[in-house]
Amino acid sequence: MKADAIIDCVGLYCPMPIVNTTKKVKEMSEGQVLEIIADDEGVKQDMPNWARMTGNEFLGIEEEKGKYHVFVKKKSR
Amino acid sequence: MADKEKMTLILFSGEMDKALAAFNIAIGGASSGMDVTIFFTFWGLNVIKKSEGSIKSKGVMRNMLNFMNRGGAKRLPLSKFHMGGAGKAMMQKLMKDINFPQVDELMRMAKELGVKFIACTTTMGMMGITKDAFITEVDSFAGVATYIAEASESKINLFI
């Protein structure tokens, strides 16, 4: 999947991945896709739930060598 | 989205681990787009006290209490295995190993995300703590009616 921006959350635990995601998404424009790379298994459930709560679109997770690549699309009003 | 959803937390405890849990949840709520308010009461007030200097108040008992209860986010003990600070130091080492923020860092983060801090005036009166004993991040000073008003509109209410 192609992303407009990437943040590296490898080595970080809850709540840091969602904090960093929230900050990054704020800077991005509507419709853009953010890729979050993390290795804490918690993100598998946390990211879809974060997206549901904030109204952003959860596009999916790709798992690769113990790392999770999460894709979220900033909501458009 | 319509009106923002609300969350209220009561931080009654003044221990490092419990403060970590409270700020973690507050940050999670704020990151998820909620309006979050933390009410600090009783020992929880220690979390938002300034770290430097002791508090001058009237009466021997209050002065003694405030001397033994100096507070400040960096001075909080662990609720279990504190062991005169040795356990706390070890816990902080473990946190550092996984890049987990300390209480003061989490508190700053919560503030950045717009979490509101309210200090309980009843405890302040009883313990003889004045407003200037607290860090400037405290938004307001209030009592139970303010908590009830906020909590009645909140989907999540926790007492820690």
What does this protein structure show overall?
The complex is a heterodimer of chains A (77) and B (160). Chain A is 31% helix and 34% strand. Chain A has helices at 16-27, 43-54, and strands at 5-9, 33-38, 57-64, 67-73. Chain A is globular. Chain B has 160 residues and is an alpha/beta fold. Chain B has a single domain, classed as 3-Layer(aba) Sandwich (Hypothetical Protein Ychn, Chain: A), CATH 3.40.1260.10. Helices cover 39% and strands 15% of the residues of chain B. Chain B contains six helices and five strands. In chain B, α5 links the parallel β3 and β4 (140-142). The A-B interface holds A 11-16, 18-19, 21-22, 49-50, 53-55 and B 1, 24, 27-28, 31-34, 98-101, 109, 113.
What characteristics describe this protein?
heterodimer; A: alpha+beta; Translation Initiation Factor IF3; four-stranded mixed β-sheet; B: 160 residues; alpha/beta; five-stranded parallel β-sheet
Note the gap between the termini of chain B: 30 Å
CATH class of chain B: Alpha Beta
Q: Give a count of the beta strands of chain A, DSSP E runs of length 2 or more.
A: 4
> Within the largest sheet of chain B, what's the order of strands?
4-3-2-1-5
Helical amount of chain A:
25-40%
Topology:
The complex is a heterodimer of chains A (77) and B (160).
Chain A: E1 5-9, H1 16-27, E2 33-38, H2 43-54, E3 57-64, E4 67-73
Parallel strand pairs in A: 1-2
Antiparallel strand pairs in A: 2-4, 3-4
Chain B: E1 6-11, H1 16-31, E2 35-40, H2 60-68, H3 86-97, H4 103-112, E3 116-120, H5 121-127, E4 140-142, H6 144-152, E5 156-159
Parallel strand pairs in B: 1-2, 1-5, 2-3, 3-4
In short:
The complex is a heterodimer of chains A (77) and B (160). Chain A is of the alpha+beta class and 77 residues long. Helices cover 31% and strands 34% of the residues of chain A.
